[in-house]
Amino acid sequence: MKWEYNYLFIDSNLSDKANKLQITEELNKLGQEGWELVNFVSILAGFRYAFIFKRPKE
């Protein structure tokens, strides 16, 4: 099987409820498009995050 990859960078403070909602909505949107979250990395002392996704290549 072949895969394609996507990533999302978000600058945010995860302790803020509005930011959590925004991130959740973005992750759900990508999930609806067939992307599966495969890794999550905190960058810059917890104020920048990288989300890495994959899905089968069509």
Structural features, described:
The protein has about 60 residues and is of the alpha+beta class. It has one domain. It is built from 1 helix and 3 strands; from the N terminus they run βαββ. It has one helix at about 15-30; strands at about 5-10, 35-45, 50-55. Strands 1-3-2 form a 3-stranded antiparallel beta sheet, covered by helices on one side. A hairpin with a 4-residue loop joins strand 2 (about 35-45) and strand 3 (about 50-55). The protein starts with a strand and ends with a strand.
Which percent range describes the beta-strand content?
Answer: 35-45%
> Numbering strands along the chain, what is their spatial order in the largest sheet?
1-3-2
Low-pLDDT residue intervals, each spanning 5 or more residues: none
- Count of all domains: 1
Helix content class: 25-40%
Q: Over the alpha carbons, how many angstroms does the gyration radius reach?
A: 12 Å
Tell me the layout of helices and strands.
Blueprint: E1 3-11, H1 17-32, E2 36-43, E3 48-56
Antiparallel strand pairs: 1-3, 2-3
Describe the structure concisely.
The protein is α+β, with helices and mostly antiparallel strands and 58 residues long. It contains one helix and three strands, in the order E-H-E-E.
Task: Name the features.
single chain; 58 residues; alpha+beta; 3 strands
